Amino acid sequence: MMFKAKILLIGIILTLVITLLLSLLYVRELENGGNIRLREQASTMFKGNKLGIVIPFRERFDELLEFVPHIHSFLKNQDVLHEIFVINQVDQYRFNRGSLINAGFKEIMSSYSMIDYIAMHDVDLFPLNPALDYHYPPTGHVNHIAAPHLHPRYHYASFVGGILLITKEDFIQIDGLSNNYWGWGLEDDEFYLRLKEAKIGIHRPGNLTTGTSNTFRHNHDRTVRKRDMTKCYNQREVTRKRDRHTGLHNVNYFVKKKHELLIDGVPTLVLDIELKCNKTLTPWCLCSEYGLKNTKNLKKGK
């Protein structure tokens, strides 16, 4: 019995010594600049929830170069732990913001378990007012940062686009966004219906000293990048309704490549995503084919 007790005591002492040595090495690494990921993991342990910035993206690299250092500095000033994920659509189909966010969420949750909530964030919307709070949303609510009374362009009551924070549990509960919205717009209006149906409240910033002209900078030139607002096939009819068939559970995509970038020293993960289109269900993922077919039919009619 005495021998076993001695062995146990030695084991406890060794464990304490090893723990102390690792702690000293860790502190020294932090003092010397350390590893970014290690510092963030340590901060998460003591400071709470970590935010994943999810940016649906395509061919707007100049805007991204401005956005990443801006949002990193903004969140650092708020002491918000965060990582930046650019979900880059690289297929031949029309832009699909909803599917990109769904795909990004799945990839983040499978590989970055320390992410507690996400911000669905447009790359061209720069927060300016420091009172815009990017911390964890209130219980039972999403946090709509780009509220209608603050957004430079969209002011209707059901608007939830631009910048919206949601916990991973709530995003899963409402099955993410619809995958039916190819082209520009309306996917966030359908998302609003999902929030209402799930009885998830929408928290919006209040008591700000800024308004629609100076709360955000909208870094978008419509003459250079025109909105893809074309409607073809039966797109208009289908996408004006609540989608009960598609969402996070059945988003169809392939991760072509991952890039770990430093943009002005800020770590940024870019996921090249190829979306898949079921042309029977959503033939409007390529309106060019519709136009070509109609042109041929017109020629035959002549």
TrEMBL record:
InterPro entries: Galactosyl_T, Galactosyl_T_C, Galactosyl_T_N, Nucleotide-diphossugar_trans. Residues 49-131 form the Galactosyltransferase N-terminal domain. It is an enzyme of class 2 (transferase). The keyword Transmembrane helix applies. Pathway: Protein modification; protein glycosylation. GO terms for cellular component: Golgi apparatus; membrane. It is found in: Membrane. Catalyzes the transfer of galactose onto proteins or lipids. This is Beta-1,4-N-acetylgalactosaminyltransferase. It comes from Macrosiphum euphorbiae. The lineage of its organism: Eukaryota, Metazoa, Ecdysozoa, Arthropoda, Hexapoda.
